[in-house]
Design a protein that fits this description.
about 150 residues; two-stranded antiparallel sheet; 3 helices; about 30% helix
């Protein structure tokens, strides 16, 4: 089954790829590897802001991380990389805007990780870092970046 068909089967519609908010490009492809810049969580066109452990629940944090994962896929598509070229999701980096006492960053990051497995199956299983940070750009609750191996053209 194609990835696009899998997305349809799951009822997933990818958002419009967000424009960069600073001096960088969303995706760099080299040697059949795609490096996707950190993506922020947009749900229904609105940026999810706030801090885990303060004013954002675990469930809302997971939804925000999932939204970041959807934006990663949207950025690949916007770069005209067919999602069927994804050979393997190598690594996700999840940055969670959280209070110093908050320790559930890995659970928050599961929102993006679980999405990759849903969409790509075993090829979506990846290594990962889930890090708590004191703030993120634009006050975002979560930011996720990715390294993805691509099948040769």
């Amino acid at each position: 089954m194609s990835v696009e068909a899998r997305l349809a089967e799951l009822g997933i519609t990818l958002p419009k790829a967000a424009a960069p908010v600073a001096s960088y490009v969303p995706v760099v492809v080299t040697n059949n590897m795609a490096f996707v810049s950190g993506q922020l969580p947009f749900i229904d066109g609105e940026l999810v802001t706030g801090r885990l452990g303060e004013d954002v629940s675990l469930e809302d944090g997971q939804a925000a991380a999932r939204a970041c994962g959807l934006m990663i896929l949207a950025q690949l598509r916007a770069t005209e990389i067919p999602l069927d070229r994804v050979e393997r999701v190598i690594k996700l980096g999840a940055f969670v805007n959280s209070t110093p006492a908050y320790t559930d960053q890995p659970k928050v990051a599961n929102g993006a990780s679980d999405l990759m497995f849903e969409v790509f199956g075993e090829a979506g299983r990846h290594s990962r870092a889930a890090v708590g940070v004191p703030c993120l750009p634009l006050g975002a609750a979560v930011e996720v970046d990715a390294i993805i191996a691509l099948k040769a053209d």
